[in-house]
Prior knowledge:
Elements: E1 2-5, H1 11-23, E2 27-32, E3 37-42, H2 50-54, E4 59-63, E5 83-85, E6 88-90, E7 96-100, H3 107-120, E8 124-126, H4 144-155, E9 161-164, H5 171-176, E10 181-184, H6 192-199, E11 205-208, H7 215-227, E12 233-237, H8 255-262, E13 267-269, H9 271-275, H10 281-290, E14 295-299, H11 317-333
Parallel strand pairs: 7-8, 7-14, 8-9, 9-10, 10-11, 11-12, 12-13, 13-14
Antiparallel strand pairs: 1-3, 1-4, 2-3, 5-6
The structure holds phosphoenolpyruvate (PEP) and manganese (II) ion.
Amino acid sequence: MIIVMNAKSTDAQIEAVVKKLTDKGVNHNISRGVERTVIGAIGDVSRLDPEILMALPGVENVVRVGKPYKIVSRQSQSENTVIDIGGVKIGGNTVQVIGGPCSVETQAQMDESAKGVFEAGCRLMRGGAFKPRTSPYTFQGVGVEGLEMFKKAAAQYNLPIVTELMDVRMLDTFLEYDVDVIQIGTRNMQNFDLLKEVGRTHKPVILKRGMSATISEWLMAAEYIAAGGNHNIIFCERGVRSFETYYRNMLDVTAIPVLKKETHLPVIIDPSHAGGKAWMVPSLSRAAVAAGADGLLIEMHPNPCEAWCDADQGLNPAELKTLMGELRGIANVLGRDL
Ligand code: PEP
Ligand code: MN
């Protein structure tokens, strides 16, 4: 960390900054220029709060040299992390597509969905038993019973399951049902207490990007999970709020190379909640794989028009299968499998 003093700073002000560093157990190096003095903070600066330093008299600017996120940063680990989900690896050479309905509805719907997901060639299945809906008067998810139906349907095809956890009080139930991947939705990306609790487990976590979160905030949210000891984190970009109203959210494809640079953890894309329309899903999926995503989270329903939630963005089983073929071609060009 570098502390830049303003041109009129006094020796007493410089000494006060140095004292602050020493009190925090941090060494320093003072560089006196013709116009101004720069103080380098050396050592473990993780507990130094730049805002407190900024507030000291005579300080003009405080510049962080290292990253505020440690464990999830590429600086802490140069090679990619590959997460093993019941034998299915994500973050390696194979691009993984997680398919399934927005929400768990009935046993028959889940059985048909699992069949469609498996026959399309996906190795993981999604479905929400607890739904974060904008209106309290719309379908809220079938609840715990949904976990039961989901497990039963997915087990027929050996598909690990991905499902959203909204309430920390349900975590033990998720662990009892042994869900394979806990999804943290966009609305909970900065629910820090929830992040801390999933950080205490060893379950793989899909951390969706908050709809208005910066990449730095997203990385820090992942750091909350990692700091608890759980390093099995998968980032999922699902579109951000923008001025555009034509589609549901704006898919930030740029986030893929940025995250691949900043973190060693896998990065996947949810084209369904980005576009919000089924017809946009193939284009966005192709763009994501071409840009280097490690996987996709795609909504598929046996009969999208009848879906209890997000009906207009779900692919049908045949559409998912066709898309899988196209994506495989793109992955292969890049030297990856799908
Ligand atoms: C979902 O995946 O079902 C979902 C609600 O997504 P998001 O949190 O991205 O809106
Ligand atoms: Mn949905």
